Amino acid sequence: MKKSAIVVGAGIVGLATARALTNNGFNVTVLDKTQRAVGASIRNFGMVWPIGQPDGELYQLAKKSSQIWRDISNSVGMWYNQSGSLHVAYSSEEWIILNELFAQFEKEGRPITLLTPSQISIKYPLVKQNNLYGGLFSADEMIVDPRIAVANVSDFLESFSGVQFLWNHTVQEVGTGFVKSGNKLLKADKIVICSGQDIETLFPETFISLPIVKCKLQMIRMSAPNNKLIGTSVCGGLSLLHYTSFKSAPSLDLLRNKLICEIPDYIKYGIHVMVSQHEFGDLTVGDSHEYGYTFDPFDHHNVNELILNYLNSFMNASNWEISSTWNGVYPKMTDGSSWYFNEPIDDVYLLNGLGGAGMTLSFGVAEKLIDKII
């Protein structure tokens, strides 16, 4: 008889875990408290982003996740775009850092290229030319549309792998071999809790002891006239301060100190600006990073204005129109870890804290950790 497993949470971490379990012979049931996934997994750029991960295991996990995204997308006929990414430089400091990163990434064997302003103008004409020093292009990155991709992964797991989904099922209690949801008692050999920002709900004592914080981000969806294509995902200079893989650039502190002096509000709100494009031309722009445990539910207009002003410093976006704004919340480890995994009671596991890298790492991390679960 097959072993059984219950996964709590139908965001991308839960879905990746369900996939790994079913691929290892488990009958899997996924429970989620809402009618469909509506958390951080659908409130992001849809960027699968190996360039943000440092060389070694994390970069390889990101590459593995990218391949799984492509496999699932091809299986269900879901749109994705292996668009790559372009980091652009509009100051000498930014350009020096891109050259440092190019040398580093080239040694690591990554598919990267330095582009001149003229090359960028030909391939990506919506990137502004004024004061452009050049850009670093990476071919690794891909885009899915998170508003449909997460639902499509659920459908894939249900149709092709026999995973059962129980929506509108809030889990109130978990113990070895069981979960309680309302008046239902569901039993399984293994239980994995992938509850995102609700991490404190089922195991509050564990949550209190963790080096973890929550992050609220603000994002904007826009459209360009005639849905003109931008050609790749584009990142401004502020993004150089954001990703772990960039921290080894020797000149990074010089740029950080310069930006703290010149645009302190961007550092205060944790803003770095990038833009991705989806199947029908929609553009997702963001984002900010506010850390804490309880957040004001409202978007801050001044933060969105800062994001849009910076966007217009490197993209010809003055005629883009806003179609929606929103915020999302995810847990992030504060000790430098890329995720949290533990077994608080026998055969019950917690997997959380992937921060803003859920779309990038989840499939790979679930495959890495599956041996510790089964």
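The above is record 1. Record 2 follows with the same two-line structure.
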Amino acid sequence: MLGKTNISTLSEGAIVTEIEDFKWIQIQSGIYGNFVKAVCKNGYLAAITADGTVVYTTDGEVWQTSVLEYEDCKLNDVDWDGSRFILVGSYTDASRNPVDEYGLILCTTDFVTYEKVVIPNAEDSTISNIKYDREYIVIYPVNGKYIIVAKRRNTSRNDLIVLAGDLVNTWDSNNVISSSFEGGTVSIAKSSNEILLCYVGYFTNPIKYYNSVCKIAGNATYSLLFRTDVNNKIPQFSVFECKDELFYRSARPTDNYKFVKVLNSSEEIILSTDINYMFIDGVYFNSCQLFINNHEMMVVKKGESLANKTLDDLIEIAPELTMNCITKAFGQLYIFGNQGAILKSSVETNNENAIAVQTLSAKKALADAKAYSDERYAELEARIMALEAGQIQE
């Protein structure tokens, strides 16, 4: 048995905040893993957690959970290939030598039954040359085939490589993105044409870390877009998709916090600098581009430019939660976060003007309240000084 499925109607919890005439409602999912990816395809809205749990629904009301029964199961990506969903990640296999994490590929049409797929050339474990795929990070269906980004154990190091094939006769394209890959720090985004990948690698003698952003085309070839040295293995970049366009942003002041759109030609358009928005994901909804960070949302309406936005334009959505990804489904928006958190917008989002912000975010409301208090305090202080000087008769 590959998974265990429970059917439940997830209850609606506290209202988080209001945006115009609709509300963000927290759904009690009953799970506690951190969501990493969500997809809405073929009538399903499904989200995966880092610890191997799938939450899915066909109407946004009745939800189901599927717990994958693999030891130390980890999921990184889920996608739809036109006939089935493909999930990729890793698990610990105690039956193999060496006992280690190995790449995991699962196929399903309904998130109830799963078929495990082992691609050829994924393992070549000999005494002289230990080589096997430890983890699959990205699955990308394209033109009837698949592109997979994998972490491959190669003797004493980890390689970040690109695989291409059909999952039956998959071949290694020999595209080694990084021969010194620091695992667990990968950010991915996919459009209909390309993959954007951000990762942390390192040099040895002495150890020196670097952040990189690269693009992988539909023919499995990759090109490096950006690389910068860093002092540790904490990722300094994030990548995401919005309106079938790919973006990356830097969290480094030395890069001027640049926020960049990547064109198909590998050319770039810098959309914003000098403001650390900390965006992690985006979605196109009701003719607006929406970008989220861990707690806030930026709304860029048709005809507007992000270059004209400021931090005051951020709308606080989840001050006490951590948001990880956003998607649209069933005419609504869904945000998935840490600790099993799911936020959905109310049905009023079918309103074409739903993104217009009429209520203030909590952060901006506090700023306005402080400005008002400072103004009243200054007036009071001036009155006291005037009384002491005898300029005002009580």
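The first helix runs from residue 362 to 388.
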